[in-house]
Amino acid sequence: MFLLPALALLGALVVYPIGYSVWRSLFDASGDGFVGIDNYREVFSDDAIRTAVKNNVIWVIVAPSVATALGLIFAVLTERVRWATAFKLVVFMPMAISMLAAGIIFRLVYEQDPDRGVANAITVTVHDTFADRPPFPGAHPRNGSGLGESPDGSYTVPGQARAGAAQLVPLVGAKRQDIGGAQEAVAARPEAGKVTGTVWFDFTRGGGGRHGALDPGEKALAGVTVEAVRDGEVVARATTRGDGTYTLPGKAEGAQLRLPAANFDEPYNGVDWLGPSLVTPAIIGSYVWMWAGFAMVLIAAGLASVPRELLEAARVDGASEWQVFRRVTVPLLAPVLAVVVVTLMINVLKIFDLVYIIAPGTTQDDANVLALQLFQSSFGTDVNQGVGSAISVFLLVLVLPVMYFNVRRIRRERRR
Fold first, then answer.
1. Alpha-carbon distance 31 to 378, whole Å?
2. What is the pLDDT of residue 238?
3. Interior CA angle at 243 toward 237 and 247, to 5°?
4. Fewest CB atoms within 10 Å of the CB: 36, 112, 225, 366?
C-alpha cells in the first residue's frame, strides 16, 4: 500500500518511456510499418551517428578524467591555505549556472573576433608579444604603378637601386586605423653613396592628388621593411621612419628593392576554436569549467576524512610530498575518485545543451554527440522517431555498464 504510489510514479516516468522507446525503435518513421532491427542498422551505418559515437567516446574518456584531475589538484593544494573556502566557492560557482547559460557564455568566449572573444584576445595578445604585427595589412601598389607583385606576396620596385637618387614607392589599400595618426610623408633627400627613398600612402583626402607623385598632406607609411636583393640574396635592409623615408647603405646600389610580404600580411587573428578540428575539445573545456568544482567539493570532503596520522607517518619515514600524494593520499581517496568519475561519465553520456548551443551550424556535425543526434533524428528537419528511439535505446545500453559498476561499488561500501 505504501509502495504503490511510488511504483506508479516510477512506472509512469521511467519504465513506460523505456519500454515504449524500445517498441517504437522497431517501427518506421510513420510508426505504422514494422522494420525490426533496421533502425539499429542505420544507427551503426549512418556517418553522422558514427561521428556522434566517436565524439561520445572522446567525451567519456577526456571530460571526466580532466575534471577529476583538476578537482583533485584544487582540493589538495587548497587544503592548507586560509582562503581555501573562498577559492572553493569561486571554483564551485559555475555549477550554479545552467548548461544553457554556460553555452551562451562560452559561445562568446570562443568568438573568432579578438575584440569579442576572450580566448582569441588572449591568444592574439600572447602571439603579438613574441611576433611582429604586420604594419599595413592589405596595402598594395596602385594598378599601373610599375611595382611588380611576386608569387610570395612581396612587391618589387622596377629597375635597379641607384646611390644618390631617391626612389618613390607609392602604395594604396592601407586601412584607415593603421594610418590615422601617421605623419605627413616627406620626399627623401638624395645622399651620396647611399640609396634613399620614401614609402607613402598615395591618396589625397578630398581627391585631386596625382598618382605616383608625393602630394602635400599624403601620409607616410612608417615601419615598412625595405630590402635590397641581388641574385636572390638580401644584401641590405632598412625600415621606413616616421616620415616614410628609408636609407640603405651603398652596397645596395645595383640591387633590386623589394617590400617583403610580411609588411602586408593579414594580422594574426587567433585560433578557430569552433572549427572542425577544435570544436569538441573547446566544448569539453567549457564542461570542465562547470564540473571541476563539483569534483573538487566531493574530493575535498573525502580528503577531510583521511587520517592525518598516515600522512605524517609517511613524511616521518622520509617520503617526499609527491610520494605522500601518489602513494598515500590518492589510494585513500580511490573510493571518492571512483564516485566522481562514474558520476561524470554518466553525465557526459547524455551531454546535449553545451554542444547544441556552442557549436555553430557549420561545425555542429563535427561536434555531434548521441543525445544531440537523438534530438535531431526525433524532432529535427528530417524526422524519424524510429531511428531516434533506436539511438535512445543504444544510449541506455551504453549507460547500463556504468550504472552496474556504480551499484556494485555502493554495495561493497555498505558491506564495509
1. 12
2. 93
3. 30
4. 36
